[in-house]
Amino acid sequence: MQGCSNWRDAAYSWRSFIARINFAAIAGTLCTPVKTEWAMLCSHCRERYYPQIAPCIIVAIRREDSILLARHVRHRNGVHTVLAGFVEVGETLEQAVAREVMEESGIKVKNLRYVTSQPWPFPQSLMTAFMAEYDSGEIVIDPKELLEANWYRYDDLPLLPPPAPSHAV
Fold first, then answer.
1. 15 burial class (0-12, 13-18, 19+ CB within 10 angstroms)?
2. DSSP readout, 115-132?
3. In the chain, count of helices (H) and strands (E)?
4. Mean pLDDT across 45-53
5. What is the Cα–Cα distance from 13 to 28, expressed in whole angstroms?
6. What are phi and psi of 102, to 5 degrees?
7. Which residue in 135, 7, 6, 157 sits closest to 82, CA to CA?
8. In sequence order, what are the residues at sequence separation of 6 or more whose Cβ sits closer than 8 angstroms to the Cβ of residue 116?
9. How far apart, in whole angstroms, are the C-alpha atoms of residue 87 and residue 23?
10. Cβ-based burial of 169 (10 A; exposed 0-12, middle 13-18, buried ≥19)
11. What's CA 147's distance to the chain center, in Å?
C-alpha cells in the first residue's frame, strides 16, 4: 500500500471497489479486505481479487505555435481540453494515442513523447499523458465525442479547465 501519491483518490477508488466486490466471483462467498495490500480475499477458496484499473491516455498535440483543443459533448460549459480516451484490449499506449486522435479528430500524429502519469479515480483509471506533433490530415470531428476541435495559438487560448490542486497532468 506504499507509493500512493494521492490518498483521497486512492480511498475513493478503494471504497468503490469494495462496494462492488462483496462476494467472490468463483465461490460466491463473502470477501474481506486484505490488510497488507489493495485486495479482497474470498473466505472460502482464498482467491484474491484486485481492483481493475482502466488505462487511459491524454495527449497534447502541437502544430507549430498552436495546440489542438476540443469541446467534448459531455462538457457543455464551453471548456476546451486536449484529447483523451481509454486504451482498448491488446493495444499499447502509443497505439491508443494514434487511434483516439484519429477517431476523435481525423488527424495523424508523430513524435509521441511520454510526459507523466497519475491515478484518476473516475473510474479507477491510470491516466498516461503524452505530447505529440501534428503529422497530417484535416480536422474531422466525431460528433458522438466532440462538439468542435480546432488549432489554437498559445497566446489566444479558449476557456480551459482550472488547474487541479494535486495533479500535474
1. exposed
2. EEEEEETTTTEEEEEEEE
3. 2, 9
4. 89
5. 23
6. -65, -45
7. 157
8. 128, 129, 168, 169
9. 28
10. middle
11. 20
pTM above 0.85, yes or no: no
Residue 3 has pLDDT above 60, yes or no: no
3-state secondary structure string, 19-79?
HHCCECCCCCCEEEECCCCCCEEECCCCCEECCCCEEEEEEEEEECCEEEEEEECCCCCCC
Q: What is the domain partition of the chain in residue ranges?
A: 7-49, 54-153
Enter the C-alpha cell of residue 56. Answer: 487511459
C-beta of residue 121 within 8 angstroms of C-beta of residue 38: no
Q: Give the position of cell 489554437.
A: 152
Average pLDDT, the chain: 89
Cβ neighbours, 10 Å, residue 124 = 18
Instruction: Provide the grid cell at 18.
Output: 469494495
Average of pLDDT values for 99-125? 92
Give percent helix, percent strand, percent coil of the chain, each to the nearest 5: 15, 40, 45
Give the CA angle between residues 50, 97, 148 to the nearest 5°.
Answer: 115
What class, spelled out in words, does domain 54-153 have in CATH? alpha beta
Task: Return the ∠ at Cα 123 (arms to 115 and 84), rounded to 5°.
Answer: 40
